[in-house]
Specification:
Blueprint: H1 4-10, H2 13-45, H3 56-67, H4 76-100, H5 108-136, H6 155-166, H7 175-180, H8 183-203, H9 208-238, H10 241-244, H11 253-264, H12 273-309
Helix pairs in contact: 2-3, 2-4, 2-12, 4-5, 5-6, 5-8, 8-9, 9-12
């Protein structure tokens, strides 16, 4: 019996509710702001000279003018699928670990630790999905019919193709910076949980708008601090970035970082930051607001059902 208690906490209804709410909120938010993610990705991957001195919204207008509205939603379905899986894993792990630890010992350091562990689990299980996504987003843009991305059109086909052609290690391209980047959601959750606790002490249950604001603040905080690593992660996942940068295919994080600084200066490490801020902050803010409402609604239904049975 003593051993069943921790297991019950890990496989609890509460952890499932938070995981489903987090996955649903992230898919909804990304669906709304997906064009901003496309702009961010194009700025990170394409030759800096091609999109020189363009703001996020100027780039979106240019993409619509040159390639049509549909290009803003290129690769959207596999991204939403991956995001759903990724956030389900992250929220489930985070809240299961939170339930296992002492609820009376809530602190920013504890949230940072739990967020970091959840991030490692998430990276190890979902990186292959994001590798396929990174390549599908640029599908057909170089006009080359022999482009490898023409060999697959969805997540499953992409996973099988990359594993066959590049080996299983190809599916975990960019995993090293991704593991370093577990500090991003960890910092985000630390800030988010800390702000939520402070506001709850003063005003009670935060409103939907307040959840939106603290979600935006926490994501801005984590994104700015970790952006250079995010840029390198995207380039490594894309695969062909090392070719365009004239680097060996096995180039690592440090080698790519030094190359960017050498060719574009320190500011090159922050190329696309404006688009990233717009995209991730708005998406995270809407995601957290949706997540909190869904989780609160479902939990109230479960409590009501439990009371009715009694």
């Amino acid at each position: 019996m003593a051993q069943s208690k921790p297991i019950n906490k890990v496989f609890s209804y509460e952890a499932w509710v938070h995981a489903v709410a987090g996955a649903t909120g992230s898919v909804f938010a990304m669906s709304v702001f997906y064009p901003l993610d496309t702009a961010r990705y194009r700025l990170q991957i394409e030759d800096p000279k091609k999109r020189k001195a363009l703001s996020t919204f100027q780039l979106i207008k240019q993409l619509i003018r040159e390639e049509g509205v549909s290009t803003l939603y290129r690769g959207m379905i596999p991204v939403l699928q991956s995001l759903c899986i990724s956030n389900f894993v992250y929220f489930y792990t985070f809240h299961s670990l939170k339930a296992l630890s002492s609820s009376s010992n809530q602190s920013a350091v504890r949230d940072l630790l739990l967020g970091s562990i959840s991030g490692v689990v998430n990276v190890l299980t979902t990186t292959p999905f994001w590798v396929v996504n990174s390549r599908l987003k640029m599908k057909g843009l170089n006009g080359n019919r022999d482009d490898e991305t023409n060999k697959y059109s969805n997540l499953v086909e992409g996973l099988l193709y990359i594993a066959q052609v590049e080996g299983w290690q190809g599916l975990w391209a960019g995993a090293i910076p991704s593991l370093m980047l577990v500090c991003n959601p960890a910092l985000q959750f630390m800030m988010y949980e800390s702000l939520k606790r402070r506001i709850a002490k003063v005003d009670g249950q935060p409103s939907a708008m307040m959840f939106f604001l603290i979600g935006a603040i926490s994501k801005t905080f984590s994104s700015v601090i970790t952006y250079p690593l995010q840029l390198i992660q995207t380039k490594l996942r894309h695969g062909k970035s090392t070719e365009s940068m004239k680097l060996p295919s096995n180039a690592g994080v440090i080698q790519m970082l030094l190359h960017i600084v050498k060719t574009s200066g320190v500011e090159g490490l922050f190329r696309g930051l404006e688009a990233k801020i717009w995209q991730t902050v708005l998406t995270a803010a809407l995601m957290f607001a949706t997540y909190e409402k869904i989780a609160k609604f479902v939990m109230s239904l479960l409590i009501r059902k439990k009371v009715t049975k009694q």
